[in-house]
Amino acid sequence: QVQLVESGGGLVQAGGSLRLSCAASGRTFSRYIMGWFRQALGKEREFVAAISRSGGSTYYVDSVKGRFTISRDNDKNTVYLQMNSLKPEDTAVYYCAARNGLDITRREYDYWGQGTQVTVSS
Residue 89: what are its φ and ψ, rounded to 5°? Predict the structure, then answer.
């Protein structure tokens, strides 16, 4: 089992940047595919990005391609989401998640963090 804690959310103007972090407990972090999801007010949670166990492969939803970058540091048990060129429509609670397996395109995850709010003002 793994516990996840997100940080780095906040208020930013459109066009600005934020970097989210997600710290994982335990010694098995490198065994998990890691992902980021988001949920805007009144909307369903949506997938944002995923990264393979080694960090060698990444996968993004089309709406963030070229603007967001997911990365991980297995020595620090941490996954990151660098968000650039932020838009008001990126406003949401962002969740970190972990899953077993090998396929980074699957969107069923086993463990979830509590979320961090990102607000982008116009």
Answer: -75, -5
Backbone angles phi, psi at 15, to 5 degrees: 90, -10
Reading the chain (122 residues) residue by residue, the pLDDT tens digits are: 899 999 999 999 999 999 999 999 977 999 999 999 999 999 999 999 999 999 999 999 999 999 999 999 999 999 999 999 999 999 999 999 999 989 999 999 999 999 999 999 99
**What span, in angstroms and rounded, lies between the C-alpha atoms of 50 and 111?**
14
How many helices (H) does the chain have, and how many strands (E)? 0, 11
Structure tokens at 67: 């603007």
Nearest-angstrom CA–CA distance, 49 and 21: 13
